[in-house]
Write the structure tokens for this entry.
Amino acid sequence: MAQVVELPSEGELKDMYAKPINPTEKYDNKIFVPTHNRDSKLEQKVDGLKKDIHSPKYIKDISKILYNGKADAYAKFPNQGEVARFDADRFIDNAEKSKALHVKNNLDDFFKLVDGNQMLNLVRSLPLYKTNDEKHNKLVDAINEMRDIQDASKDFSKMSQYVESKLEGIPAWLQESLSYYSENQEYISSVFKQFAGFAQNRFQKETHLFLVENGKIKKAVANRGKLEKALRDSLDKLWEMYKDETISGEKSDIIDDRINPYYLALANTVYPKEDNKFKKDQDEDAAIRDENRNQAHLVPYPIKKAA
């Protein structure tokens, strides 16, 4: 007699597989942190599998993540490692796109979680795009010049090129001096440091607020509002570029290579603090459950009625 195989229901089938974060859901720490942890863990397992494609441990670990605890999902394949890696790469790609869209749909919530110093790190690490706003463009120029300075400081030829790019507008005698000593590393380094100092001052002025007492700067803090606006304006410019592009492949590249990195950078920035908050909330919930359990075990002492 043939054996009847009972297939899983549609609901059970959906629960068998890991799913990226829902892009349309409102931001929830209790959803964002666990999915971010899972995705990061999967990336680590894939990195390990790429170094040892036949590793039973990494194959099982990837299976457990992608199949919600099922460790032997790839046991039937002769090339288990290759299949597991392919599946994991596809999931990671989809998860990143879903996470980016989730941040886009909850952009205000994510920005609220970023402090001034984190905002400063974001504008220094992400490419900013110019708009029709002169104030915005001035900030972009200051940040880009600091990037040029940092890049040139590691290589004398780039340092020399940077100094040469600054010749326009300086007195002729100084131009001649710089040209004459162009191969002198000590001289060029000294001039470069002066230009770097000017660039640093412009950067500070464009990105910070200053607390002044008695005519002296006592403290400088990141101008959080201005930096957030710079990021938002750059994102708006990118979406404008996307809408103006008519070639579908180019449109996809703008999303994948320029826009999504913004949203993913925001997600990675807020994660550490949100992870700490998530753990703290879990500890508090566990403490409340323990207290409720203890209370449930308390048996009231019987009180005898007076005769």
Observations:
- The chain has two domains: 14-112, 116-251.
